[in-house]
Amino acid sequence: IIDSAILRPGRLDQLIYIPLPDEASRLQIFKANLRKTPIATDVDLTYLAKTTVGFSGADLTEICQRACKLAIRESIEKEIRHEKEKQERRARGEELMDDDVYDPVPEITRAHFEEAMKFARRSVSDNDIRKYEMFAQTLQQQRGFGTNFKFPNQAGVSSNPGQPTGPSGAGNDDDDLYS
Question: Gene Ontology terms, cellular component aspect (predicted)?
Protein backbone atom coordinates (compact mmCIF):
# COMPACT_ATOMS: atom_id res chain seq x y z
CA ILE A 1 0.00 0.00 0.00
CA ILE A 2 2.75 2.45 1.01
CA ASP A 3 6.26 2.51 -0.47
CA SER A 4 8.75 1.21 2.11
CA ALA A 5 11.03 4.23 1.46
CA ILE A 6 8.39 6.49 2.96
CA LEU A 7 8.31 4.36 6.11
CA ARG A 8 12.04 4.65 6.84
CA PRO A 9 13.00 6.29 10.14
CA GLY A 10 12.73 10.05 10.07
CA ARG A 11 9.91 10.16 7.56
CA LEU A 12 6.54 8.61 8.38
CA ASP A 13 8.00 6.66 11.23
CA GLN A 14 5.12 7.13 13.63
CA LEU A 15 1.84 5.34 13.40
CA ILE A 16 -1.02 6.84 15.35
CA TYR A 17 -3.95 4.47 15.45
CA ILE A 18 -7.20 5.95 16.67
CA PRO A 19 -9.78 3.21 17.14
CA LEU A 20 -13.46 3.63 16.40
CA PRO A 21 -15.36 5.30 19.25
CA ASP A 22 -16.89 3.18 21.99
CA GLU A 23 -20.46 3.72 23.21
CA ALA A 24 -19.59 6.50 25.67
CA SER A 25 -17.53 8.29 23.01
CA ARG A 26 -20.32 7.95 20.46
CA LEU A 27 -22.76 9.52 22.93
CA GLN A 28 -20.36 12.43 23.46
CA ILE A 29 -19.98 12.83 19.69
CA PHE A 30 -23.77 13.03 19.32
CA LYS A 31 -23.98 15.57 22.15
CA ALA A 32 -21.15 17.67 20.68
CA ASN A 33 -22.74 17.69 17.22
CA LEU A 34 -26.17 18.61 18.58
CA ARG A 35 -25.14 20.99 21.37
CA LYS A 36 -26.71 24.07 19.74
CA THR A 37 -29.63 22.25 18.14
CA PRO A 38 -33.12 21.97 19.60
CA ILE A 39 -33.96 18.29 20.04
CA ALA A 40 -37.32 16.79 21.00
CA THR A 41 -37.42 15.48 24.55
CA ASP A 42 -38.32 11.95 23.41
CA VAL A 43 -35.08 11.55 21.40
CA ASP A 44 -32.83 9.10 23.23
CA LEU A 45 -29.22 9.83 22.27
CA THR A 46 -28.03 6.95 24.47
CA TYR A 47 -30.04 4.51 22.36
CA LEU A 48 -28.57 6.05 19.20
CA ALA A 49 -25.08 5.56 20.64
CA LYS A 50 -25.85 1.91 21.44
CA THR A 51 -27.12 1.17 17.94
CA THR A 52 -24.24 2.78 16.05
CA VAL A 53 -21.50 0.28 16.92
CA GLY A 54 -18.73 0.42 14.32
CA PHE A 55 -19.55 3.96 13.16
CA SER A 56 -16.77 6.53 13.01
CA GLY A 57 -17.08 10.06 14.33
CA ALA A 58 -17.59 11.30 10.77
CA ASP A 59 -20.38 8.76 10.25
CA LEU A 60 -22.14 9.97 13.40
CA THR A 61 -21.74 13.59 12.33
CA GLU A 62 -23.36 12.75 9.01
CA ILE A 63 -26.36 11.25 10.84
CA CYS A 64 -26.76 14.45 12.88
CA GLN A 65 -26.43 16.70 9.84
CA ARG A 66 -28.96 14.69 7.85
CA ALA A 67 -31.47 14.74 10.75
CA CYS A 68 -30.97 18.49 11.07
CA LYS A 69 -31.54 19.05 7.34
CA LEU A 70 -34.70 16.95 7.49
CA ALA A 71 -36.01 19.11 10.35
CA ILE A 72 -35.21 22.29 8.45
CA ARG A 73 -36.89 20.98 5.29
CA GLU A 74 -40.00 20.08 7.29
CA SER A 75 -40.05 23.52 8.89
CA ILE A 76 -39.78 25.26 5.50
CA GLU A 77 -42.61 23.14 4.11
CA LYS A 78 -44.81 24.07 7.10
CA GLU A 79 -44.03 27.74 6.60
CA ILE A 80 -44.93 27.54 2.91
CA ARG A 81 -48.25 25.84 3.77
CA HIS A 82 -48.95 28.50 6.39
CA GLU A 83 -48.28 31.29 3.87
CA LYS A 84 -50.62 29.68 1.34
CA GLU A 85 -53.35 29.43 3.99
CA LYS A 86 -52.89 33.13 4.82
CA GLN A 87 -53.21 34.08 1.15
CA GLU A 88 -56.36 31.96 0.80
CA ARG A 89 -57.93 33.65 3.85
CA ARG A 90 -57.07 37.08 2.46
CA ALA A 91 -58.65 36.10 -0.85
CA ARG A 92 -61.84 35.09 1.02
CA GLY A 93 -61.79 38.46 2.80
CA GLU A 94 -61.03 37.15 6.27
CA GLU A 95 -59.18 39.44 8.60
CA LEU A 96 -55.77 38.31 9.67
CA MET A 97 -54.71 38.75 13.27
CA ASP A 98 -51.25 39.69 14.37
CA ASP A 99 -51.29 36.38 16.22
CA ASP A 100 -50.94 34.66 12.87
CA VAL A 101 -47.22 35.38 12.81
CA TYR A 102 -45.77 31.97 12.22
CA ASP A 103 -42.14 31.42 13.22
CA PRO A 104 -41.47 27.81 14.05
CA VAL A 105 -38.11 26.76 15.41
CA PRO A 106 -37.23 23.47 13.74
CA GLU A 107 -36.76 20.76 16.31
CA ILE A 108 -35.13 17.43 15.55
CA THR A 109 -37.56 14.63 16.34
CA ARG A 110 -37.33 10.87 16.52
CA ALA A 111 -38.78 10.67 13.01
CA HIS A 112 -35.92 12.81 11.68
CA PHE A 113 -33.32 10.52 13.26
CA GLU A 114 -35.17 7.41 12.05
CA GLU A 115 -35.12 8.77 8.50
CA ALA A 116 -31.45 9.79 8.81
CA MET A 117 -30.55 6.28 10.02
CA LYS A 118 -32.04 4.82 6.83
CA PHE A 119 -29.17 6.45 4.94
CA ALA A 120 -26.50 5.86 7.59
CA ARG A 121 -23.60 3.64 6.74
CA ARG A 122 -20.31 2.61 8.30
CA SER A 123 -17.37 4.06 6.43
CA VAL A 124 -14.87 1.67 8.04
CA SER A 125 -15.54 -2.02 7.46
CA ASP A 126 -14.37 -4.82 9.72
CA ASN A 127 -11.95 -5.81 6.97
CA ASP A 128 -10.48 -2.28 6.97
CA ILE A 129 -10.03 -2.40 10.75
CA ARG A 130 -8.13 -5.69 10.45
CA LYS A 131 -5.91 -4.14 7.75
CA TYR A 132 -5.08 -1.16 9.99
CA GLU A 133 -4.28 -3.42 12.92
CA MET A 134 -2.07 -5.67 10.77
CA PHE A 135 -0.29 -2.61 9.36
CA ALA A 136 0.38 -1.30 12.87
CA GLN A 137 1.74 -4.69 13.92
CA THR A 138 4.00 -4.91 10.85
CA LEU A 139 5.30 -1.40 11.41
CA GLN A 140 6.15 -2.19 15.04
CA GLN A 141 8.04 -5.32 14.02
CA GLN A 142 10.00 -3.47 11.33
CA ARG A 143 11.01 -0.72 13.72
CA GLY A 144 12.37 -3.04 16.37
CA PHE A 145 10.22 -1.82 19.22
CA GLY A 146 10.99 -3.40 22.54
CA THR A 147 14.81 -3.57 22.28
CA ASN A 148 16.61 -3.22 25.58
CA PHE A 149 19.49 -0.91 24.67
CA LYS A 150 21.96 -0.17 27.47
CA PHE A 151 25.44 1.27 27.54
CA PRO A 152 27.98 -1.14 28.99
CA ASN A 153 29.29 -0.50 32.50
CA GLN A 154 32.96 0.45 32.27
CA ALA A 155 35.54 1.48 34.80
CA GLY A 156 35.82 5.25 34.83
CA VAL A 157 32.25 5.79 33.63
CA SER A 158 29.92 7.36 36.17
CA SER A 159 26.45 6.02 36.81
CA ASN A 160 25.38 9.66 37.35
CA PRO A 161 25.21 11.59 34.09
CA GLY A 162 27.52 14.59 34.01
CA GLN A 163 29.68 13.44 36.94
CA PRO A 164 33.15 12.42 35.81
CA THR A 165 34.99 9.65 37.60
CA GLY A 166 38.38 8.12 37.15
CA PRO A 167 41.73 9.81 36.70
CA SER A 168 40.58 12.91 34.78
CA GLY A 169 37.90 13.86 37.30
CA ALA A 170 39.61 12.96 40.57
CA GLY A 171 40.60 16.03 42.56
CA ASN A 172 41.62 18.28 39.67
CA ASP A 173 39.11 21.13 40.23
CA ASP A 174 41.19 23.79 38.44
CA ASP A 175 40.42 22.38 35.02
CA ASP A 176 36.81 21.36 35.78
CA LEU A 177 34.57 23.93 34.11
CA TYR A 178 31.38 22.57 35.72
CA SER A 179 32.34 22.61 39.41
Answer: cytosol; nucleus; VCP-NPL4-UFD1 AAA ATPase complex
